[in-house]
Amino acid sequence: MRMRIIVPFVICTVMSISFVGSVWGNYNSNVLYASLLSASSDKQLQRLDEIAGSLYEAAYTNNRQAGFQQVQQLQRMMTVELRRASGHKEGWIAMEQDARSIERALVNSQMSSEWLLQAARIRLAADALVRPEHALLLQYESIMQDDLSRVEKAWKRQTGDGAIAARASMNSLEAHMKRVEPAMNLLYGSMHGAEVVERISYTNRLLEASRSNTTNDAMIDRSIIALKESIVHMYDKSGRAEVLPTTAIASTSNPLSWTLFLGAFISAILTYSGWRKYKLNPFGVKPLP
User: Fold this and answer.
1) Contact status, residue 51 vs residue 74, Cβ threshold 8 Å
2) DSSP H helix total and E strand total for the chain
3) Helix, strand, or coil here: 210?
């Protein structure tokens, strides 16, 4: 009779230990897989950054042959797997569009001035993926603030052409925003810099309307102040969206294994309870009072 209780207890205990080992083994294998996948993605991103740097150098020196080779390598590097591993979709789309624009410009034998902007955008975006905390695009905060300071000075000119001068100064700010936009999209998504883009467009419309005296100075003053605040907010780390990890960590839990483990554990407890009851009263007969 005792063996009928002990044998199931031993079996349940062994099953519990086995399932614990299975769960722990799955955990370790998932972590190892994630580490290997992350290392592979890091190498690909490093290579992408190198190609983007060479592409920008080719554009800066007007080396069309080198530029064509680099943009083809770049397009081959931007695989679906790499896109899933790091960055936001909007940024990858922008990089792909810029690469196609460069390819078309080179096929049509256009000068580097026709594809230098796209090469710079790709360079900044790739750099941001590799080193997000020290990305080159972070240097553009002071550059854009300087652009806006020139806009303010031009607007406050007392020569009667303040709106025209300010609108001309806005071109530099707009160009710099276009340059960093893909990198911002890659790191934080398309909505992160959307406010700056909208503020630039709105301020431009106000300045253009001011030439015909269809607006007032106070609206332009408020718009410039709001634009300055939106640039600060875009570069404010506390207001940034979460950056996607270089590689998504694989799930470390196995629901089936945990279910089986819990079932075995409960069975072991019930078996032990039955054994104790049997030990206290092996024949199931209550003693006479």
Assistant:
1) yes
2) 10, 0
3) helix
With contact defined as beta carbons under 8 Å apart, do 274 and 7 qualify? no
164: three-class secondary structure by DSSP: helix
Instruction: Measure the CA–CA gap between 266 and 154, rounded to whole angstroms.
Output: 78
Average pLDDT over residues 162-173: 94
The token pair that represents 263 in the structure block: 């079932």
- Residue 193's alpha-carbon distances to 39, 103, 140, 225, 226, in angstroms, are 30, 27, 13, 17, 14
Structure tokens at 111: 């000068």
pLDDT digits (tens, 9 = 90+) for 188-205: 988 889 999 999 999 999
pTM for the full model?
Answer: 0.68
Structural tokens at position 36: 């290997």
Alpha-carbon distance of 116 to 121, in angstroms, equals: 9
Task: Collapse the DSSP code of 115 into the 3-class scheme (helix H, G, I; strand E, B; otherwise coil) and give the result.
Answer: coil
The secondary element (H helix, E strand) that includes residue 99 is: helix 89-107
E strands present in 47-157: none
**Which token pair is 57?**
């150098």
Higher pLDDT, 44 or 122: 122
Model pLDDT, residue 14: 52
Count CB atoms within 10 A of the CB of residue 39. 12
Nearest of 198, 203, 200 to residue 176 by alpha carbon: 200
Asked if residues 56 and 74 have their Cβ atoms less than 8 Å apart, the reply is no
